[in-house]
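Write out this protein's structure.
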Amino acid sequence: MRIRNEENGFLIRLDLGEPLLDSIIDFAKGHGIEAAFLWGLGAVKGVTLGYYDIEDKSYEKNGYDGTWELVSFTGNLARTDEGAFVHAHALLSNSANETIGGHVFSMATAATVEIYLIPLKPGLSRKYDETTGLNLLDI
């Protein structure tokens, strides 16, 4: 991971093989960041995306082999009762420029991932919502 401080945040470059979500959480912990919004792009592999079924209150997860362009990655970092949590969605494309997207459960850097992270103060937390079955931002 390479980091450059910016006026309002951090520019982060993940190296080959680094897990995206865990790297963001580790970076935030190391810099005392409890909440943030983030955007990114790059190339990824080992992808697991999900879709939330609101009626069943459960995620449907799908794994994708191969290397994918990370066309768009958007998310936030907040606290849950279990600790730091990254809620992110991604749009990916393959070699035929066909796209897939969804809630990010896991992915690792295939070539590079470039992220811009803006810390938020005060922190954010997520609390369980009975209606949706999700941990929603507590704002």
